[in-house]
Amino acid sequence: MAKILIADDEPDVLLIVAERLRRSGHEVEYAPDGTQAMQKSDQTVYSLLILDIRMPGHTGYEVCAHAKKSKKNGKTPVLLISAFPEEQMAWRQSRADAFLAKPFETGQLIATVERLLKGNA
After folding, report:
1. DSSP helix/strand/coil, 24
2. Which range marks the domain in which residue 5 is found?
3. Of all helices (H) and strands (E), which one includes residue 92?
4. How far apart are CA 52 and CA 27, in angstroms?
5. DSSP classification of residue 61
6. Are 48 and 2 in contact (CB under 8 A)?
7. What is the pLDDT of residues 74-100, one digit of tens each?
8. Sign of the Cα pseudo-torsion (71, 49, 7, 100, in order)
9. For residue 120, what pLDDT is reported?
10. Rounded-to-integer distance, Cα 73 and Cα 80, Å
């Protein structure tokens, strides 16, 4: 069982993703914005961070960069998600490990999560 943080400002996305990951046996915490995601990543070691790119407080890019510099989550894989098509290429310049465009199929989400948890970015 992995401990996963999901950060997204869309409550429906948080609930759907969290429920699907819980059904796959993972422990899930969530943050409704980038500021809370940063705070949580400073306090807890996670197996995976799933971050929406565009959210209030701090962007997913900023949260990713912050986590990758930290002692707690510096080696934690990061999955960025976004509903904005232009992010599909831009994310590669970040330190994130993978990207999914919204809307995504839950099977695609689980496959990507499992791949990242196994260390295959």
Report:
1. coil
2. 1-81
3. none
4. 19
5. H
6. yes
7. 999 999 999 987 777 777 778 899 999
8. positive
9. 60
10. 15
Establish if 111 belongs to a structural domain: no
Q: How far apart are CA 107 and CA 21, in angstroms?
A: 11
16-51 tens-digit pLDDT: 999 999 999 999 999 999 999 999 999 999 999 999
Any domain includes 94: no
Is residue 115 in some structural domain? no
Tokens of 116: 């990242």
Task: Band the pLDDT of 121: cuts 50, 70, 90.
Answer: low
Is 95 contained in some domain? no
Rg of the chain on CA atoms, in Å: 13
pTM: 0.94
CATH, residue 56:
3.40.50.2300
Which runs of E-coded beta strand occur in 1-121?
3-7, 27-31, 48-52, 78-82, 98-101
Q: How many domains does one find in the chain?
A: 1
